[in-house]
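Recap slide: Thiosulfate oxidation carrier protein SoxY, sequence and predicted structure.
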Amino acid sequence: MQTRRETLKHSAAVAGLLASTGLFPQYAQAFDKAAFDAKSVAEAVKAMGGSAPVESKDVTITGPDIAENGAVVPLGVSTSLGNVKRMLLLVEKNPSALIAMFNVTPEVEANFATRSKMGQSSDVYAVAITNDGKAFFAKKEVKVTLGGCGG
């Protein structure tokens, strides 16, 4: 019977072998420094290859009206637009506006959910960027309460 420690050691060895043979996906670490360093919604959209965003009913954002724990705010983004290459999730008043970026292909439904940290009440944006560089957005105000007191 293997111990937990031995199992972890063997798992690490197998992962190392897979990485060295090219069988382990190396592309999963997507990161765009300019976009994540952007301080505003417009800067982040521009860094991701989008034009000035236009409000659209085809882009939706979900989240709570009041988040009692700003450390884990559940948010969702989706769109019914066609030809979308990226979906962005942005929090206007966070130190770095861009929270998440999702690459969309024809095989992927443009419907994503994640959790974000929010230090204060802010507008949250869902942005869909199409293959031709057009950007469409929806926004929602999320109020963050201090200490979960609800007011």
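Residues 75 and 144 are 13 Å apart (CA to CA).
The longest strand covers residues 135-144.
(End of recap.)
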